[in-house]
Amino acid sequence: MATRHAPASASASHIDPRRAPPSRKATMKKLLALVLVPSLLLGAACAEGGADASASHAPAVATPALQANLTAAADGAPSAVQECTDAPGELEAEPPAQEKPKPQAPQGVDPLAAEWDAAVAKRGKADYEAAAALFEAYYAAHPDAPRAKEALVEAGNALLSVGRSKMKLGVPTPESRLAFQTALERLAIVVKDRASPHAARAQYLRGSVLMFSGDLAGAEREYTLAREGWPNDARYARKSLERRAFVRRHLLDAAGAIADMDLYIKSHGPGTNGHEEKEYQSVQTYRSFAQAFEKPAPALQSASWAQGGPLRLEELKGEVVLVYFLATWCDNCEKARPQVLELMRRHGGNLKVVGVIDDQRGQTLESVRAWLPTRGYSFPVMHDIGQKAMREWQSAKIPDMVLLDRAGRVRWHDNALNLQDATIERLLMEDPNEAAGK
After folding, report:
1. Nearest Cα to 91, choosing from 205, 35, 11?
2. What structural domains and CATH numbers belong to the chain?
3. Backbone angles phi and psi of 323, in degrees to 5
């Protein structure tokens, strides 16, 4: 299980917010020395413009570990996660560099506005490393400026995007962990100033950073702090509730996730302050999925198997099973394929995979049989004639995945890119006898 984190406010207790954050080179040097061998990561979620925006196939998105295309939502980038330390490492502020004469700005040009616009321009071009550096430089040079704390939040958000871009097949690398760690530190400075109008967003983004880094328990905690600490923030109280429901689903906390989704639907529906229709529809979709949680999975009934089989799910009782809905014509399925194959490689014989491909768009039994080996798929694949299985399993959008526990019960349902290693690990570690008795 993911390690619990200390409160965000404690993570920057020795950082002088008026002094310049350490240079990127110094930060890299210090934190790389602290980076451990990457542990299993999990994945979900988001960034606003950059990291705040998450990806989710209307049901969601994600990666084995909150990865690449999360279709759900997070602000630093929707809607996807280790080495996540108990508390962000504290960096020693470097002494201010010797000031050099600053070039005179053209008459009528605000130097602060020009610096800000330069950082925003880099962010707009998805050059998140440069954007983060410029936002940090803005804060260092103008710690008392009206937008100083906002600059730190933007730096943290950009670093979240940097971290996500440096993950490999949904799994954090030392470089991505470094970016995530630095983002946590920058955001902690803002959270410490609870009166800041940017504190709620900073707290929320800390949850997103931890989610992508693989620390689901830490992400749940940070989203709770954002929700409860700023209940009147129309945007981030709402988004934190949606993200916490997302994380709880990946923690296999069905009751907690359902409670959050019901509260979201009740509190943030059409006509309410801060309503966001796409996010609302996504929550409703996941709530519909949750009706099947902890109940026996529907049968897979077909005499037509493109590969392997025929088999019945009853034959796989005692195993953790992944049912994967995909298609030969699906571009997003192809995008997810490297992560799916890597996930199956990592979990080897511990995870049984069963594929389902329907007969739409000319997917005949023969064409599917010829296609599967070219994509590296070796698991049994049922040919779903008439889309009967897709309807019974509520798999309206692909790539789609459903996880079954050893008792054959539905425990998780989401977009293929949202599947986290941590979620699979939880199922693999459950006691088979206990699962069967529930």
Report:
1. 11
2. 8-288 (1.25.40.10), 305-437 (3.40.30.10)
3. -100, 120
Element of type H or E holding 128? helix 128-141
Give the residue, 170 or 160, on which the prediction is more confident. 160
Q: Tell me if the bond preceding 310 is cis, omega within 30° of 0.
A: yes
Q: Report the C-alpha gap between 250 and 256 in whole angstroms.
A: 11
Return d(Cα 54, Cα 48) in angstroms, integer: 8
Do the Cβ atoms of 105 and 114 come closer than 8 Å?
A: yes
CB 47 within 8 A of CB 208: yes
Distance between CA 155 and CA 203 in Å, rounded? 14
Confidence at residue 61, expressed as pLDDT on a 0 to 100 scale: 33
Task: Please give the backbone phi and psi of residue 26, each rounded to the nearest 5 degrees, phi first.
Answer: -65, -40
Greater confidence (365 vs 17) lies with 365
Nearest-angstrom CA–CA distance, 62 and 419: 6
Compute the chain's Rg from CA coordinates.
23
| 368 has a pLDDT exceeding 60 | yes
Which pLDDT band holds residue 438 (cuts at 50, 70, 90)? Answer: low
pLDDT tens digits, 116-167: 999 999 999 999 999 999 999 999 999 999 999 999 999 999 999 999 999 9
Question: 160 Cβ partners below 8 Å, 6+ apart?
Answer: 47, 50, 51, 52, 76, 77, 179, 180, 183, 205, 208, 209, 212
Q: What SS3 state is found at 56?
A: coil
